Amino acid sequence: MVKQARTGNGFHSHLTGLMFAAREQGIPLPNLFTDASFHTFSTVTLSTTHPNPTPGVDGIGFGPVSERCIGVSYFVFENEIIWFQLGRVRYQKNKNSGKTDECAKIRPLSISARSANMFR
Description:
Blueprint: H1 2-6, H2 12-25, H3 31-34, H4 36-42, E1 46-49, E2 70-76, E3 81-93, E4 100-114
Parallel strand pairs: 1-2
Antiparallel strand pairs: 2-3, 3-4
């Protein structure tokens, strides 16, 4: 499973996306999404990713997978600068509909630490 996730073939985020799309469209959720094991699987508190740094890309957003989760993406660049980006879920009132919308709030946090000296 780790190898699949590292190569972009992970499944959890895709399933969560399908669940939210079904809810938004008013489609009844398949049993998979109402099963207790899916709820347990979906309630992680820290979700991380470490994509390969790409020229021209300063960072990548990585959203949380549950209400109490923090999503963290981080890069370690060739010059040993470490860059973090944190995400959490927050709720806000939609000005047009009056409904409460769930949205991910991504907060960039740049840490200028040399990775070679971090653990000394």
